[in-house]
TrEMBL record, chain A:
UniProt family annotation: Belongs to the binding-protein-dependent transport system permease family. HisMQ subfamily.
Cell compartment(s), UniProt: Cell membrane
Residue stretches spanning the membrane: 14-36, 57-78, 90-110, 147-172, 192-214
Protein name (record): Glutamate transport system permease protein
Domain called ABC transmembrane type-1: residue spans: 15-211
Keywords: Amino-acid transport, Cell membrane, Membrane, Transmembrane, Transmembrane helix, Transport
UniProt-listed PROSITE patterns: ABC_TM1
Taxonomic lineage of the native organism: Bacteria, Bacillati, Actinomycetota, Actinomycetes, Streptosporangiales
Pfam families: BPD_transp_1 (PF00528)
InterPro entries, per the entry: AA_ABC_transptr_permease_3TM, ArtM/GltK/GlnP/TcyL/YhdX-like, MetI-like, MetI-like_sf
Organism annotation: Streptosporangium brasiliense
Broad class of where this protein is predominantly found: membrane
Membrane topology according to the record: Multi-pass membrane protein
From TrEMBL, chain B:
Family per similarity comment: Belongs to the binding-protein-dependent transport system permease family.
Transmembrane regions listed in the UniProt entry: 38-58, 78-108, 120-141, 147-166, 204-225, 254-279
The name this protein goes by in its record: Glutamate transport system permease protein
PROSITE patterns, per database record: ABC_TM1
Organism encoding this protein: Streptosporangium brasiliense
Lineage: Bacteria, Bacillati, Actinomycetota, Actinomycetes, Streptosporangiales
NCBIfam families in the cross-refs: HEQRo_perm_3TM (TIGR01726)
InterPro entries found in the cross-reference section: AA_ABC_transptr_permease_3TM, ArtM/GltK/GlnP/TcyL/YhdX-like, MetI-like, MetI-like_sf
Location of region: Disordered: 286-312
Length: 222, 312
C-alpha cells in the first residue's frame, strides 16, 4: 500500500499520458472515421472501394501489430519523425497507429448511423436540389451522429483501454508504468495492480455513463 | 435504381448497402456522369501518387531490395520461423476460447440469477474485467503469479488467463443479451406448464438463446484471436513475435516481415469473420428460435450485410 502513496506522482503522470493519448487519437480517429464513412456512401465506386478496403484491412489486423509497425517500421526504418525528442516521436507514432485503427470502427459506427436516418429525409433533401455533399453535411450526418453517440462511446472506451498497447513501443503510459512499478516494488504487486485497475475504472465507467446519458439527450425523436 | 420504385417500406429498409447509400444522390444524369468520371480519374491519380510516394520512400530506405523479400519464398523460413509462431497464436486462441465460452455461460447465466448472492458477484466480475485493459491483466498475471503465489508463469499462461477473463466477460454479456432477447411469454408458458427455473433455462431459454447469440460469439472470437498479439509485449512467441522479432533479427527486414505477417492475420480473421456472417444469416432465417441475433456489447452492426464488428 505504501508503494502506491510513494509513487502517486508517477502514477498520476502516467495516467495523464494515457488521457492525452486518448484525446489526441480520439480526435484524429473521429475526423478520419467520418471521412471514411463519407467515402463509403459516396457516389464514386473508387472512393467506396478504397474506404471498404481500408476498413476491412485495418479491422482484421491486431492493434499491437499496427503499433509495432508504426514504431519500428515508420519510426526506425523509414525515419519518419515529428520531434527531435525520441520519446515524443514514439508518442506521435503511437497516436498515428491508434487513430488509424480506431478510425475503422468510427467509420462503421457512423455508417450504421446513416442507416438510421429515414429515407424520406434524404429524398426530400435531394428533391430540393441538394448535392450529395450538401445532403450528407446538412441533413444526414447531423442526424446520423446523434444516433451513434452510444456506439461512439463504446469506441472511445475501447480506445482508452487500447492506449495501453503503446507500451509495445515503449511509450510510458499507465500499463508500462505499472510494469515498471511491479519490477521495483516486487512486494506490492497486488496493491499496485488494484491501484491501476481503479485508475482505469475511473476513466472507463464514467465515460460509459456520460455517453449513455448523452445518447438519450441527443436521440432524435421520431 | 431501386430507390425510386414504390416498394413497401420494410423491404426498402433491408436494401443492401450500395442501394441504401444511393438515397444520398440521384441517378446520375449526363452532367453528373461526366463529373463523376472526372472525379474518379482525379481520385485514381491521387491514389496512384500516394502509392508512388510510398514506393519511393521505401526504395530510398532500401526496403524494396530483393533480399528483404526473398526469405518469404523459402520453405524453411515458413516451416521454422513463421508457422511455429502461427501455431502458438492459434493454440493460445483455441485454449482461451475453450475456457472463455463456458466462463461466459456461467457468468452470463449467473448475472440473471434470482439470488443476489450469485447475481451481484457475477456482475462485479464481468464489469471489472470488461472495464480494465487486457494488457494490465496480462502484466498482473505475469508478475503477480510469481510474486504472490510463487508460481512460474509462462507468457502463454499469462496471455491465456488475460484473454479468458476479458473475452469471457464480454461473452457473459452476449449470453445475457441472448437469453434476454427471448420473448417473456416463452418462459412464462414454460413455468405455467410446471417446469422448474432450471428446466426453463435448460430446455427453453438456452437452446433458443444459443441460436441468437452464435454470430456474436464467433465475432467475439475474432477479437480474441487478434488480442493474442498482445502476447508480443510479454515475449510470447506468437505470430507477431515471428514477424517483428525473429524474422527481422535474421534478415533485417522488419517492414516486409510485418507486412507478410499482417496478411496472414487478415486472412485468418476474414475466414472467422465470414463464418460469423454466415451464422448470422442462418440464424436470421432460422425458425428454431423466437429471438433475433444479438450483437456483442458496444458492437456495430454493418448496414446491409448485417456483419457484426465487435469493437475492441
Amino acid at each position: 500500500m505504501q508503494a502506491l502513496f510513494d509513487e502517486f506522482p508517477v502514477i498520476l503522470s502516467a495516467f495523464w499520458l494515457t488521457i492525452r493519448l486518448t484525446l489526441a487519437s480520439g480526435f484524429m480517429a473521429l475526423v478520419l472515421g467520418t471521412i471514411l464513412a463519407g467515402m463509403r456512401v459516396s457516389p464514386l465506386p473508387v472512393l467506396r472501394g478504397i474506404g471498404t478496403a481500408y476498413v476491412n484491412i485495418v479491422r482484421n489486423t491486431p492493434l499491437t501489430l499496427v503499433i509495432v509497425f508504426c514504431g519500428l517500421g515508420l519510426g526506425l526504418v523509414l525515419d519518419i519523425s515529428f520531434s527531435t525528442s525520441l520519446s515524443t516521436n514514439y508518442l506521435w507514432l503511437s497516436i498515428i497507429g491508434l487513430s488509424a485503427y480506431t478510425a475503422a470502427f468510427v467509420c462503421e459506427a457512423i455508417r450504421a448511423g446513416i442507416n438510421t436516418v429515414p429515407l424520406g429525409q434524404a429524398e426530400a433533401a435531394r428533391a430540393i436540389g441538394l448535392t450529395f455533399f450538401q445532403n450528407l453535411r446538412m441533413i444526414v450526418l447531423p442526424q446520423a451522429l446523434r444516433a451513434v453517440v452510444a456506439p461512439l462511446g463504446s469506441v472511445l472506451i475501447a480506445l482508452i483501454k487500447n492506449t495501453t498497447i503503446a507500451a509495445a513501443i515503449g511509450v510510458g503510459e499507465a500499463s508500462l508504468t505499472m510494469k515498471t512499478l511491479f519490477e521495483s516494488h516486487g512486494d506490492a504487486v497486488v496493491p499496485i495492480f488494484f491501484g491501476f485497475a481503479l485508475g482505469f475504472l475511473i476513466l472507463t465507467l464514467p465515460t460509459g455513463l456520460l455517453f449513455t446519458w448523452l445518447s438519450k439527450r441527443m436521440a432524435v425523436v421520431r | 435504381m431501386s430507390t425510386l420504385t414504390a416498394e413497401p417500406r420494410k423491404t426498402r429498409k433491408r436494401a443492401s448497402a450500395p442501394d441504401r447509400a444511393s438515397v444520398l444522390y440521384d441517378v446520375p444524369g449526363p452532367r453528373a456522369q461526366m463529373r463523376n468520371t472526372v472525379l474518379t480519374v482525379l481520385v485514381v491519380l491521387v491514389a496512384l501518387f500516394a502509392v508512388y510516394v510510398m514506393v519511393t520512400k521505401l526504395d530510398e530506405k532500401n526496403q524494396l531490395n530483393a533480399d528483404l523479400w526473398t526469405p518469404f519464398l523459402r520453405g524453411d523460413v515458413w516451416v521454422n520461423l513463421i508457422l511455429p509462431g502461427l501455431f502458438n497464436t492459434l493454440s493460445a486462441a483455441a485454449v482461451a476460447a475453450v475456457i472463455a465460452v463456458p466462463f461466459g455461460f456461467v457468468f452470463g447465466i449467473g448475472r440473471l440469477s434470482d439470488h443476489a448472492w450469485i447475481r451481484v458477484p457475477a456482475g462485479a466480475v464481468v464489469e471489472f474485467f470488461r472495464a480494465i485493459p487486457l494488457l494490465i491483466m496480462i502484466f498482473a498475471v505475469m508478475y503477480g503469479g510469481s510474486a504472490v503465489f510463487g508460481l512460474t508463469v509462462t507468457p502463454f499462461m499469462a496471455v491465456v488467463t488475460g484473454l479468458v477473463l476479458y473475452n469471457g466477460s464480454v461473452l457473459a454479456e452476449i449470453v445475457r443479451a441472448g437469453i434476454l432477447s427471448i420473448p417473456r411469454g416463452q418462459s412464462e408458458a414454460a413455468l405455467a406448464i410446471g417446469l422448474r427455473k432450471g428446466q426453463v433455462m435448460r430446455m427453453i431459454l438456452l437452446p433458443q438463446g444459443v441460436t441468437a447469440m452464435m454470430p456474436a460469439i464467433v465475432a467475439q472470437l475474432v477479437v480474441l484471436l487478434k488480442d493474442t498479439a498482445l502476447g508480443f509485449i510479454v515475449s510470447f512467441e506468437d505470430l507477431l513475435n515471428a514477424g517483428a522479432r525473429v524474422l527481422p533479427s535474421n534478415f533485417n527486414n522488419i517492414i516486409p516481415a510485418v507486412i507478410v505477417i499482417a496478411i496472414v492475420y487478415i486472412i485468418i480473421n476474414l475466414i472467422v469473420g465470414a463464418v460469423a456472417t454466415w451464422l448470422e444469416r442462418r440464424s436470421r432465417r432460422s425458425r428454431k428460435s423466437t429471438a433475433q441475433p444479438v450483437a456483442p456489447p458496444g458492437a456495430v452492426v454493418a448496414p446491409g450485410t448485417g456483419e457484426v464488428s465487435a469493437v475492441d
